[in-house]
Amino acid sequence: MTKTFTIPQSVLWKDTYISLLDQQKLPLETTYIELRTLEDVWDAIVTLKVRGAPAIGITAAYGLALAASQYEHEDVSSFLVHLQKDKEYLANSRPTAVNLAWALNRMVNSVQNVSSVNAAKTTLIHESIQIHAEDEEVCRQIGENGLSLFKDGDSILTICNAGSIATARYGTALAPFYLAKEQGKELKVYASETRPVFQGARLTTWELMQAGIDVTLITDSMAAHTIKTKGISAIIVGADRITANGDTANKIGTYNLAILAKAFNIPFYVAAPLSTFDPTLDSGHEIPIEERDSKEITHVAGIQIAPTGVSTFNPAFDVTPNELITAIITEKGIIAGNFTKEIQKIFN
């Protein structure tokens, strides 16, 4: 029997603005903000009011459609020049997650052969809505494929937030847990806090609790002990970019978990849509890694916890090499074995 429960949504299109769940306010406040300009969208992405590679892509697509709807150009060529400029502006907001560039490129490509400015504006709105709708279906398919790897009663570890509020619905790494809930199966989730921004503590635990899913919070440094003492049967994570050989960029700390999975001989799964793959890059060595403000490390909730002037290193992501990945779960199936060969098959 299918069960109904609450699945939070992060991005809503409202015709004249974007309604966005402010993830910086979670879990203490559930606040939706209105994005009405391109600058609003850029700021929301940079300041992590929206985060999660698919959700960033969806928000950027809506943002480009929203901005274009306000252009006053009468000829298509001027319209497209302005659109390209705004696309590049949004694309520079965060460099690592490939869904951002993928969605923006798709938006621009959708209007290359339009006959009028009005047709272009309408096409962009329809394309952004389509990107949103497709992501929800993609996430459900990822969830179904991922759930096939787990059995009722399993305890599974995850990091960061690759859930409903990071996508259109269901999520990627968290999608199997929502699908299990719908089907009346019990999976226990252990969520790593995910320093320095605490996406696991603030977001993953919050959204899973909204759905009544069994979740336990741990600090990042407790992962090895938790795997050993709590019978963790697998680790599942999301992704921000996957290269042609299967190397995967994800939230900082993911690489640590992959090493632990190998040490404890448990599977390490990556869950991601095909839009997260970047076959133009041969390996993870070519992925640009975003470095963020030092205050994310030196301060917690605005309170300084480190000496003034201390040097910091704050990469937002790390890269897990393909040899540590058991399988990559996509909407088109589960990729395993020779990642280079199997990924090439999909994109050919």
Automatic annotation (TrEMBL):
Keyword Amino-acid biosynthesis assigned: yes
EC numbers, comma separated: 5.3.1.23
Chain positions of site Transition state stabilizer: C160
Record: residues binding substrate: R51, G52, A53, R94, Q199, N250, K251
Entries under SUPFAM superfamilies matching the protein: NagB/RpiA/CoA transferase-like
InterPro entries xref list: IF-2B-related, IF-M1Pi, IF_2B-like_C, Initiation_fac_2B_a/b/d, M1Pi_N, NagB/RpiA_transferase-like
Enzyme class: isomerase
Quaternary structure note: Homodimer.
Protein name, UniProt field: Methylthioribose-1-phosphate isomerase
Species in which this protein is naturally found: Bacillus suaedaesalsae
Gene: mtnA
